[in-house]
Design brief:
By secondary structure, this protein is of the alpha/beta class. Helices cover 42% and strands 13% of the residues. The structure holds coenzyme A (COA) and zinc ion (ZN).
């Protein structure tokens, strides 16, 4: 069963750029985001209200978000790790937020300096405040298929964290192969126990293409009923707290594969390529 339509969540301006050492000017980030939205991407993750020292590339979040000429119907989620980030996101006019934790304790500690349980506690008031303000909310479960620090990750832990985020009120849960180690069989092993506890419509799959398996893994997800996939224009990205994590699944690869299967995305491939070329020109 192939769905008629798949939702592509563009994460290049955040997951992509946060791993680039050369600081991109604020105006270029804004232009990149506007080009992606104009290309038809329905969700463009714009930036991150984390500690500026944790991700220097996105230290201009307070300037980027209000500068975007927003297109009606497009969502611009921003990462928020705690109430301090939430206050900044509200001040900058956020319409959607994403909280993020992990399925492995070692990664949660390295990334956000919290245990998984502490992170869920920290997110509760963030998600409540977001919902009270009418914002769309997303929760990330990183390292669902393997952790750069602790190796194996238990699928039961992934399901527990995803369900906990769902119970906090997150509209969508993105399950991430942060370091790109998943094989197609793993997609079933990790998602099946979760799908027994949560509807597929609430889930997104976040893939990295470290070993060139991202499309095969997306296909496995599609067969399990997943209809939302994260991707990064030009395959930019990785995570600065996940050593050895190269690019995300490239949005153009995902979109052209979906279109080849006759699945609609609403994305104009030529316009997407222009957005990718633009950001590449800013990085070289
Ligand atoms: N934005 C700006 N400043 C923040 C902040 C935020 N979201 N969160 C905390 N701070 C400030 C506090 O105000 C405090 O400042 P002060 O010392 O002047 O009072 C200081 O940072 C320490 O606060 P604390 O709550 O102890 O944070 P921490 O040092 O334990 O860091 C995080 C926790 C989550 C804020 C930090 O680890 C982080 O931003 N991680 C993000 C990592 C990331 O983005 N990874 C990539 C995404 S996968
Ligand atoms: Zn990622």
């Amino acid at each position: 069963m192939t769905p008629a339509r798949v939702n592509v969540v563009e994460v290049g301006p955040r997951d992509g750029l946060q791993n680039e050492a050369a600081i991109v000017p604020t105006a270029a980030k804004v232009q990149f985001i506007e080009m992606l939205a104009a290309a038809g991407l329905p969700v463009v993750e714009a930036t991150s209200f984390v500690h500026p020292a944790a991700v220097p590339q996105l230290a201009d979040a307070d300037q980027v978000l209000p500068a975007i000429a927003r297109r009606p119907g497009v969502r611009y989620p921003v990462l928020v790790p705690n109430m301090r980030g939430m206050e900044r996101a509200i001040a900058a006019g956020a319409d959607a937020i994403a909280v993020f934790t992990a399925a492995s304790e070692a990664f949660a500690q390295a990334n956000i300096r919290m245990t998984i349980a502490e992170s869920l506690e920290a997110f509760a008031p963030v998600v409540s405040a977001a919902r009270a303000a009418g914002m769309w909310t997303r929760g990330y479960v990183s390292t669902a298929f393997g952790c750069p620090y602790q190796g194996e990750v238990d699928p039961a832990a992934v399901a527990d964290v995803a369900v906990a985020l769902h119970e906090l009120g997150c509209d969508q849960i993105s399950v991430g192969d942060t370091i790109g180690v998943a094989e197609p069989d793993d997609v079933g092993h990790v998602l099946s126990p979760l799908l027994a506890r949560m509807p597929a419509e609430r889930l997104a799959l976040h893939l990295h293409d470290t070993r060139g398996r991202a499309i095969d893994n997306a296909e496995a997800g599609l067969h399990l009923g997943i209809t939302t996939f994260d991707a990064s224009a030009s395959g930019l990205g990785g995570c600065p707290f996940a050593p050895g994590a190269p690019g995300n699944l490239a949005t153009e690869t995902l979109v052209s594969w979906l279109h080849g299967l006759g699945i609609e995305t609403g994305v104009d491939e030529a316009a997407l390529l222009e957005a990718s070329a633009y950001i590449r020109s800013q990085l070289s």
